[in-house]
Amino acid sequence: MDLFEYQGKQYFARFGIPVSAGGVADTVDEAVAAADASGYPVVVKAQVQVGGRGKAGGVKLAADAGEVRLHAGNILGLDIKGHVVHRLWVEHATDIAEEYYASFTLDRGAKAHLAMVSARGGVEIETVADEEPAAIARMHIDPAVGFSEALARQLVEEAALPAGACEGAVDILQKLYRCYDEGDADLVEINPLVLTKEGQVHALDAKVTLDDNAAFRHPEWAQFRDIDELDDRERLARSKGLQYVGLEGEVGIIANGAGLAMSTCDVVNQVGGRPANFLDIGGGANADVMANALEVINSDPDVRSIFINIFGGITRGEEVARGIVTALGRVSIGSPIVIRLDGTNAGEGREILRTVESDRLLSQPTMLEAARKAVALAEGSER
Ligand code: GDP
Ligand code: MN
Fold first, then answer.
1. Would residue 101 show up in a list of annotated catalytic residues for this protein?
2. Closest by alpha carbon to 115, among 48, 33, 180?
3. Cβ(202) – ligand 1 distance below 6 Å
4. Is the CB of 99 under 6 A from ligand 1?
5. How far, in Å, CA of 289 to CA of 67, rounded?
6. Is 100 a catalytic residue?
7. What is the pLDDT of residues 121-179, one digit of tens each?
8. Which domains does the chain possess?
9. Could you tell me which residues come within 8 angstroms of residue 84 by beta carbon, excluding any fewer than 6 positions away?
10. Are 42 and 90 in contact (CB under 8 A)?
11. pTM for this structure?
């Protein structure tokens, strides 16, 4: 899960990383109120989950309430690389002396954490990384050993940060590592990490990606879940606890297991169709889950046919088939359905499906034949 800057800063603050005082705002009036509370001058910042906001006009300094009004009005609704701004973060502006870069992320290839620090942070960091990779100091961290103060100092020295920034940077790097490690993040990035004119080191931006696999031990992450970023279908799916991603096509997909759901999307593409979604209903393909899945797919106006692809494992074929039949009795479906049922007790399951088959509800023995049928139905069907 990616956090917005303001959420990332809340996360940083929990680990003692210094950030500026500020507030969120969804309207121009709220932006002025947040600015009044933070103290002028302020910086008005677009909250979208994409980099390069500064260059796109999404970060503006404001000296007084009039300027906050002007910038907030311009930034709200702005489209930054396909992300429309619905929310602002307004914080007390910092007097910047220098901009640095600091991050921790997972280097899967090296099977270790990777720390990066540069004295050349700011909006041009990508260019620096491309053209002068040596200007970014890198250090692999063995997760079993951890990141000591001595290692932090070594990294800051390699990055050649000026003497006046060293103590502050060493302190923040250690806190940032805790935020990454104990905080269960896959990425924490501060760009820019600034040295202020007063000589303080301070985080001016926050990019945090939390590791969804650790969500079970962080009930407090629920506050970060952003329903606004989702489209209507995804919001409905989320509310029903389904693993759903909306796509552009016409063939609605229901599969059990993420791997099978992905393969199902691939096969639909392979036979010339386009998946309308990715939907993994997980192991227990019972009537409730199936009815919820069908309801979500049914809510998508682009869907022209539905492909249910189930491989019976622990959940046996006849249970899956009964679940499908019950679900169909509960939800009225707008599109024809093709079912491929295989795996444990598939034969018994298909027997049950045979009792409800029609020209709008077909069973096919293989994934490929089912995909062909679903794509043909999508092409020939109107809703
Ligand atoms: P990004 O472009 O999406 O990475 O947004 P940032 O939050 O990194 O802001 C972009 C740039 O705006 C920074 O590199 C700073 O140069 C500038 N900026 C952000 N906050 C402040 C501030 O409080 N004071 C000043 N003077 N500049 C700021
Ligand atoms: Mn930034």
1. yes
2. 180
3. no
4. yes
5. 51
6. no
7. 999 999 999 999 999 999 999 999 999 999 999 999 999 999 999 999 999 999 999 99
8. 21-92 (3.30.1490.20), 96-222 (3.30.470.20), 231-380 (3.40.50.261)
9. 48, 77, 78
10. yes
11. 0.69
